[in-house]
Amino acid sequence: MKDVIIVDYMRSPFTPSRKGALASVRPDEIAAVEAEIARHPKPHHYRVASKGKRIEVYARIGPDAVDVYREMAAAGFLPPGREQDMRELDERFAQFTPTLCFTLIDPDRRWFGAEERSRWAGIDEWLELGQEGEIAALAHAIIPSLDGGFLPGYTTVQPGITTRPPATPGKGGRAMPTKKRAKSQPTSVHQLKITLLHLSPPVWRRIAVPSDMPLGALHYVLQLAMGWTDSHLHDFRVGRTTYGDPEMLQELGDADEWEAALADVAPRTGNRLRYTYDFGDNWEHDILIEQVGPPVPELAYPVCLAGERACPPDDCGGVWGYAELLEALADPKHPEHEWLLEWAGGPIDPEAFDRDEVNKQLARLP
Questions:
Q1: What is the pLDDT of residues 341-366, one digit of tens each?
Q2: What pTM, to 2 d.p., does this model score?
Q3: What is the DSSP string of 275-332?
Q4: Of 101, 154, 197, 201, whose CB count within 10 A is highest?
Q5: CB 206 within 8 A of CB 290
Q6: Each residue of 275-317: pLDDT tens digit?
Q7: Are strands 123-132 and 111-120 parallel, antiparallel or unpaired?
Q8: What's the CA gap between 20 and 50, in Å, rounded?
């Protein structure tokens, strides 16, 4: 199994796929950054990318962004290792360039640091802006000060910024709403059984979510319920229609996942959806609508009701790669045992599942 760099349109190309698998940013932390971008006066000028410990904000630079990278590499201005990153850049990144980075520096305390990219007089460097124990607070202090784009030779954010009240979210923002759902009960609830296909014995979860939840929000719930890290692209398929990220509709979907509620695409018991995560490893999930009805008063939604077995780790190579990984980890004499054990961060128990921990994660969703 080789160490490769996965390049996705909405994901950072700067982090090898086999590093930091356990110390990763969570979907709710990514959602907090996306929510601040949605509040920005020019949200369409930015893209959010995540991989491992990093959440990166890309700013619009223009159609010559890749050429700028090539010129910087030729002049020797790229930091060590970035030459390969530049070569791996997908042409779809051509209009955007990295400008801001949030890095998880303490996984246990969820402590983050922030850096802003500065280019001046031919020097390309990252300036430290500060650290904070809440990613939402850090993003709220920094993102409102972005000027709406990245200009060569111009520092967009200055160290020492202060927090200011959030602006009204702009129209068309696709980040999850910041209002806590626990403040009001939904009028209707969908109970779903999610089964990760092609694995035996099966990995599955039973969850309940508001019936009016957009598919874009359901994506975050699925990531947490299953145990993924939201490090790759995804889509939903209902019949012949594919729903995806609105930024990727021309390539990955027919319809905006944030404009389609669960009740609209799967209104009745027995309806099914297909959710695919990571088009490289191709993890396919069958979503069965088990029940549709009124909420249980003492429950806060979304909620995980049951489940079995651990989710495979991201970037393990799909169904066959996961089987090979478990085989190597179980055999100390396997030639790849040691380095795979280090990559995985220790032994993997494929039978492990903690419903209480899943619900703690779901409770953090905005």
A1: 888 888 899 999 999 999 998 988 86
A2: 0.55
A3: EEE-TTTTEEEEEEEEEEEPPPTT--SSEEEEEESPPPPTTS-HHHHHHHHHHHHH-T
A4: 101
A5: yes
A6: 999 888 899 999 999 999 999 988 999 999 999 999 999 888 8
A7: antiparallel
A8: 13
